[in-house]
Structure formats: structure tokens, C-alpha cells
Amino acid sequence: MVCKILLVGAGLTSAVTGSILRKMCRKHVYLVVWDKAQEVGGRMGTTRSPSDTDCIADLGAQYITSSQENFTKHSDIYGSLTGANIIEPLCSNIGGRKDLLMGGKHFVAPYGMSSLVKHFLNGAADEIHFGYHVVSIYKEGKHWLVETKSGVKDMFDIVILTMPVPQLLDLQGSLREIITKNYEMEQNLKSVKFSSRYALCLFFDSNYKFNIGWDAKYVYDNEIFRFVSFDNKKRNRPDLPSAVVFHTTVQYGENNMYTDLNVVRNQLVGHVEEMFPDWPEPAHVKCQRWQYSQVITPYTGQPGCLTISDHPLLVAGGDSFVSSHVDGCISSAFTLADRVGKVIKTESE
């Protein structure tokens, strides 16, 4: 018997969960990934200059920090990433960064953070569909009927949700009814809170070389920006074309979350010009709104995985149920895979 599983979201949690399930269940699962975006990554997305494919930048997560405990606990995951040259030790100069605890490690993804997600999805997913924005999930006997905003429908044996909880609460159908009937679950879900922020990327002509004494830095005396990075240098690739990434403060993000994106873009670009008046005009500019940037208040107890329905199985995971860092996503993925794997094993016996 083959179990058809839908993974909603093409971020790190979903990718690692799929990879673990593939190794655990092999041909007993058929894994389908749906994501509303047009590419993998989620908040670990990587963007490219429209005119230069060598000029890339991470608009979400910037680098990986792992404690000695988590690095040891997730040694198989980190071993897979380092063995495939997906990540390498961070060597750049990042000003204002917090000191590492003893035994901790910093890593960067030389080909962009989305390469981590691609690494785990490759060989794990049987189907990946982009532009599939899930809006409703209905229980149909022993299966789930899942529908997208564009009207695509399909049946699945198991559904795994990895989007931020506020987006989960927007889903309609039997899922909404199940949550509403469980007061404690509903209140715990509603208690999950995220910070909001914007990311601005300036892509520069490959012929221009910056002469600045830092690679990236945290800014603590600016009311708009909190972090700025020469992304190519941060990724240990100083010879590649420059792409400079700015992350706003949480306060700026919250104050302007519903402001027109072009207005925000122009305001942020203007502020960069005030900070660095000698910089040349960028070749391209991209502004990214992160409404759900990082978890401030995770689900009560940080379980890593929430079972919303046992029969048929529907579970939720991701940083909403742990914390917003790579090891949190990995921990959630193991918890999700363990929960799903037990059901598949029971049904196949």
C-alpha cells in the first residue's frame, strides 16, 4: 500500500520532513509538495538579479547558527549538507554579532539559503507544484480533499501543514471545524505570534567593487534598518557581483506592514541613499515583505508537531511549534516524520 501525503509549504521544515519520510518509508509513500510561491525556500528564499544570474542574495535567513548540542543532535543533517558542499563555515566579518556559546558553529550557504531546501527535496518529493495556494481542506471519508485558490483539487491520505500558524488559521473546510470544536487547541493556535519586517536588496553592476571594511553588520542606532550585508561576501564569495541586503527593524515592519509595497520600497531606498551617499545607483532593486518573519510566541509547550486530526491524519509543524532558527525547523521535521511514520507503519502491518 502506498500512502499519498501532501506537504503544504516548500520551506526547510517541509523539505527535511519529506527527506526523512522518504528514507524511513521508501516506496510506501508518495510525497507531493504544494507551495503558493513560485519557487522553493519560504523564508529561506534566495533571489537573483534579473540581469546577472551570478548575482544572488538571501532575503530571509542570513546564516545558520547551531549550538554544540543541536549540531551533535542533528549530525546526520549537517553531515549531509557539508558533504554536499551546501553549507560551509562562515568566514566573513559580521559586526555586532552576538558571541557564540562554547562549541557553537556558524555556517553560510555559498549558493544561497534556498539550496538547503532544494538539497532535501531532491530525491524526496515525487511532485512539486508552485503557485498552489491552499485555501480549504475537507474530510472525505478516510481521505482529505485539498483545494487551492485557483480551483485545483486533489485527495490525500495524510496532510502535513508547515506554514505559519496565522496562515493555517485562515484555511477553511473541515479543518476549520475541527479547530473550532477544540477550544484549547484553538486558543493555543491563536496565541502564536510572529514579528514582521521588510528586506531590501540592491543588485549592483558586476564591474563595481565596494571598498568597505566590513562584510555585514548589525545596526543598533538606526530607526529603520537593523542589519545590512554584502551578500556575496557574507557567503564567502567576495569575487562575485555585489548584492547588498538590508533588513528593517521589527518596529518599522509592524508600523508599515500594510503600506503599499512601492511606497515602502522608495522609502527604504531613500534611507540607504542617506546612509551611503557615495554608493552608485543599483542595477536592480527588490523589496520583500515578511509579514511572518520570526516567531515571537510559539505554540504552548513547543511540541514541534501538532496533531489536528488522527483519522485521517492531519498534522502541523514548523517554527510556529518550536522557534525560528534552522535547528528548530529540523527538530520539528523529525517530530513530524516520527508521527507520520508511526501511522504508515501501523497501516502497512
TrEMBL record:
GO terms for molecular function: oxidoreductase activity, acting on NAD(P)H. Pfam families: Amino_oxidase, NAD_binding_8. The keyword Lyase does not apply. Keywords: Signal. InterPro entries: Amino_oxidase, FAD/NAD-bd_sf, RNLS. GO terms for cellular component: extracellular region. Residues 99-340 form the Amine oxidase domain. The keyword Secreted does not apply. This is Amine oxidase domain-containing protein. It comes from Coptotermes formosanus.
